[in-house]
């Protein structure tokens, strides 16, 4: 089989004065003998660039291009979280609801050893539900994908309930809510809950509500993509490059027969855990949906800033005994987002680590990542990367990352140093979550404190995302008792607890 010839193409979108140009990735790509890659990078707002190299299809000698679409692996989980938070924002489901409130399966889903502890969406998003990818998971998922028609797709209960045909005792571990254990099955469960809420197939609903709304060519169904020739083949080096997935040869696969499928029975059929196809450019746009600016506002087009802040708020942190860190990679988690340090050795302008929110991915030889980074010096940037084969092997490096990623983070940090200096970024004191905003306890009809009244008007948004009300005056509106974030010009300004 022919070996890849290294190619490099640089595309900057848009080309703007004062925006630092991306670095050369030649040395990095050659060091790791990459089959192909696409990297998008940009500051928190606006300016972005995409760098590509190598092949998307070695056999047909098709290079990676900016619009090349990859199967992005577990970054899919972060994107699934965006879909859930859209439902949460609309008040259609709560983070702490019992999922059985929504599911109508033949058996309720509860931990067999802790049947009185409700499984909630928050637990599924944060890998703390007690679910594991047990020995029954692979066979169940294989049968899910191989079903002859929609009516034959096995139910989620068939895997997770002790009476199910695919159930194994190792599908459940610790008590729900007490321990972090990264798994795929919980996002299959989350997608099933989302289907039960919306009444629609997960892939169809995500395309209409998230991807079409953003105007991007992404989907959990490869047949939705604009051009099958844009899809990258995924490779492993097994003594030579061997295609592992998405080797379509320019011919769309046959459409599956999904007749008879009932939404809300097995959303894992549509691969919320790892089956999203998306380009690096469009992944960078998705990263913006969970980015938060230093002033508490957000570049997100799908959500107001307080919803983004809640999405990013840490839910679990490793204390040495309350979770499995996946080789040291996972030590903190938000709602579907991995929280990690951006090591200072990769940030030439900083003596302290940065912070980043996003998700890594690995499957079929692909290595991927998509993150928003914040530093103490006020440099805030985004990046996404999709690598469809590492010739030198996926060797573990520092902090649980592969060496190819450690080296890439270093190159990206060098670029961020230049980009933030060019943009004249200044240090700021960010509001990272609603809990860090100034807080007031007030009653309906009371005047707002002078400091708030001077910044009115506000949109009042409750932390469940259920009430959005623009208020022109300077008094507390007639909203139900609870905690609200006041969103004004420039972002979130305060939180108010309405007590009666």
Report the count of strand segments.
19
Spell out the helices and strands N to C.
EHEEEEHHHHHHEEEHHEEEEEEHEHEEEE
Report the CATH architecture of the largest domain: 3-Layer(aba) Sandwich
Percent strand equals: 15-25%
- The top level CATH class name of the largest domain: Alpha Beta
Distance between the termini: 73 Å
Keywords summarizing the entry:
single chain; alpha+beta; Beta-lactamase; five-stranded mixed β-sheet; 11 helices; eight-stranded antiparallel β-sheet
Care to give the gist of this entry?
With 500 residues, the chain is of the alpha+beta class.
Q: What this model shows, in words?
A:
- This protein is globular.
- It has helices at 26-32, 75-89, 121-125, 135-146, 157-160, 185-198, 202-214, 280-288, 305-312, 403-422, 450-453, and strands at residues 8-13, 36-43, 48-57, 62-63, 70-71, 234-237, 241-245, 277-278, 316-317, 332-333, 338-342, 354-363, 366-374, 380-387, 439-442, 458-462, 468-471, 482-488, 491-498.
- The strands form five sheets. Strands 1, 2, 3, 4, 11, 12, 13 and 14 form an eight-stranded antiparallel beta sheet that branches.
- It folds into two domains: 1-434, Beta-lactamase (3-Layer(aba) Sandwich); 437-498, no CATH class.
- The chain has 500 residues and is α+β, with helices and mostly antiparallel strands.
- A hairpin with a 2-residue loop joins strand 12 and strand 13.
- The longest helix has 20 residues, at 403-422.
- The model is unreliable at 1-18, 426-435 and 463-467 (pLDDT under 50).
- 22% of the residues lie in helices and 21% in strands.
């Amino acid at each position: 089989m022919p070996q890849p010839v290294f190619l490099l193409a640089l595309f900057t979108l848009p080309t703007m004065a004062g925006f630092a140009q991306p670095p050369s990735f030649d040395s990095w790509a050659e060091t790791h003998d990459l089959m192909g890659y696409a990297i998008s990078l940009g500051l928190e707002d606006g300016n972005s660039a995409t760098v590509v190299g190598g092949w998307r299809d070695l056999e047909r000698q098709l290079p990676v291009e900016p619009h090349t679409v990859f199967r992005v692996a577990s970054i899919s989980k972060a994107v699934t979280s965006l879909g859930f938070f859209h439902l949460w924002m609309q008040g259609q489901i709560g983070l702490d609801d019992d999922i059985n409130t929504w599911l109508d399966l033949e058996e309720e889903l509860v931990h067999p050893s802790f049947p009185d502890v409700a499984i909630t969406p928050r637990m599924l998003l944060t890998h703390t539900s007690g679910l594991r990818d047990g020995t029954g998971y692979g066979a169940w998922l294989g049968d899910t994908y191989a079903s002859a028609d929609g009516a034959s797709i096995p139910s989620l209960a068939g895997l997770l309930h002790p009476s199910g045909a695919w159930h194994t005792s190792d599908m459940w571990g610790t008590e729900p809510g007490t321990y972090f254990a990264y798994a795929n099955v919980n996002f299959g469960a989350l997608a099933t809950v989302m289907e039960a809420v919306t009444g629609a197939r997960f892939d169809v609903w995500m395309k209409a509500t998230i991807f079409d709304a953003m105007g991007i060519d992404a989907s959990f169904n490869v047949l939705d993509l604009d051009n099958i020739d844009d899809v990258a083949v995924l490779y492993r080096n097994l003594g030579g490059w061997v295609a592992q997935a998405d080797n379509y040869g320019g011919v769309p696969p046959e459409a599956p027969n999904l007749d008879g499928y009932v939404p809300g029975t097995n959303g894992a059929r549509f691969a919320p855990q790892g089956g999203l196809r998306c380009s690096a450019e469009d992944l960078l746009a998705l990263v913006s949906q969970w980015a938060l600016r230093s002033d508490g506002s957000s570049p997100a087009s799908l959500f107001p800033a307080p919803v983004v802040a809640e999405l990013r708020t840490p839910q679990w942190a490793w204390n040495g005994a309350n979770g499995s860190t996946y080789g040291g990679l996972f030590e903190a988690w938000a709602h579907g987002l991995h929280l990690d340090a951006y090591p200072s050795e990769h940030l030439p302008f900083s003596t302290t680590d940065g912070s980043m929110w996003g998700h890594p991915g690995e499957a079929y030889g692909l290595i991927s990542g998509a993150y928003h980074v914040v530093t103490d010096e006020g440099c805030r940037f985004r990046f996404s990367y999709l690598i469809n084969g590492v010739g030198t092997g996926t060797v573990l490096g520092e902090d649980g990352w592969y060496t190819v990623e450690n080296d890439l983070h270093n190159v990206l940090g060098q670029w961020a140093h230049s980009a933030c200096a060019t943009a004249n970024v200044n240090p700021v004191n960010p509001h990272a979550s609603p809990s860090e905003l100034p807080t007031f306890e007030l009653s309906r009809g009371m005047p707002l404190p002078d400091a708030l009244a001077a910044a009115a008007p506000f949109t009042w948004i409750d932390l469940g995302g259920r009430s959005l009300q623009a208020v022109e005056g300077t008094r507390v509106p007639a909203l139900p008792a609870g905690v609200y974030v006041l969103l004004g010009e420039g972002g979130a300004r305060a939180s108010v607890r309405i007590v009666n």
